[in-house]
Amino acid sequence: MLRGFYTAASGMLAQQRRQEALSNNIANANTPGYKADQPTLRAFPELLMQQMGTKNIPTVNGGLNLPVQNPIGALNTGVYVQELVPNYMQGDVRETGISTDMALINGALPDETGSLFFTVQNEDGEARYTRNGNFTVDGQGFLVTDQGYYVLDQAGNPIQTNGMDFTVTQDGFLQAEGQTIPLGIAYAANANELVKEGNGLFAGDAGAVPNGATFTLQQGFLERSNVDSLQAMTQMMESYRMFETNQRVLKAYDESMGKAVNEIARLG
């Protein structure tokens, strides 16, 4: 019966974590470039139950007791949220008309799990990657994200525009004041290995765009979040019902345990 307590409780905790992930997706449904998290549920490793005992073997000296194990069967110990996997599917693109907004549109990619990103510099001076092209120009004339992180060029340097009067070509070059600067577009062959850090940033291994990979950069556009709000709401309702089901199971176990302690013991 105690195993039932743990199994029902683990189910409740898993659905709680799933609810948190879905709530975060819905909260970011209007965040440009946001990639929805997909919770993956997994059962805890199964335990092989065995009965331990002894077997008497007659011998000339009277007998010998040998330890034996009789298989009973497997025991599943519940479920848990193994990880949150971002969905890197391309979001819809909408026009904003703002010159500092940029939408990075994936073309042909050499790997099914690959994706392209803008390269930015976080507060610690480290390179990070983002799909959020909601950029602006700071007081010193540098192109920055809406959190103030520098947008980098291919050489890993902050991009100086000295204002919002610049153009961006579809193949990723920024033209301002007579200079042409290649934007730092990075490619991750396996985007699932990147780690979400918040504010739309990803950390991990990404490098130069390889031969065979194509993309289009659209100035004055933004890639929207790829969250399907209607689907996320449906999944939240499903998760809530499963939480309630585990809760009722836990209550039933609790009532049975109460009877075992208070009534059966009294009868004895």
Spell out the key features of this protein.
268 residues, 2 domains, 5-stranded antiparallel β-sheet, 3-stranded antiparallel β-sheet
Short characterization:
With 268 residues, the protein is α+β, with helices and mostly antiparallel strands. Helices cover 24% and strands 36% of the residues.
Number of helices: 2
End-to-end CA span: 20 Å
Q: Approximately what portion of the residues adopt beta-strand conformation?
A: 35-45%
Oligomeric status: single chain
Number of domains: 2
CA radius of gyration is 28 Å
Coarse shape:
elongated
- Rounded mean pLDDT is 88
Helical content (DSSP H or I, runs of 4+): 10-25%
Give me the count of strands: 20
Outline the fold blueprint.
Blueprint: H1 2-27, E1 37-43, E2 47-57, E3 64-75, E4 79-86, E5 93-95, E6 102-106, E7 115-121, E8 127-130, E9 135-137, E10 143-145, E11 150-151, E12 167-168, E13 173-176, E14 179-182, E15 185-188, E16 195-198, E17 201-203, E18 207-208, E19 215-219, E20 221-223, H2 229-267
Antiparallel strand pairs: 1-4, 2-3, 5-20, 6-19, 7-8, 7-11, 7-15, 9-10, 12-13, 13-14, 15-18, 16-17
Helix pairs in contact: 1-2
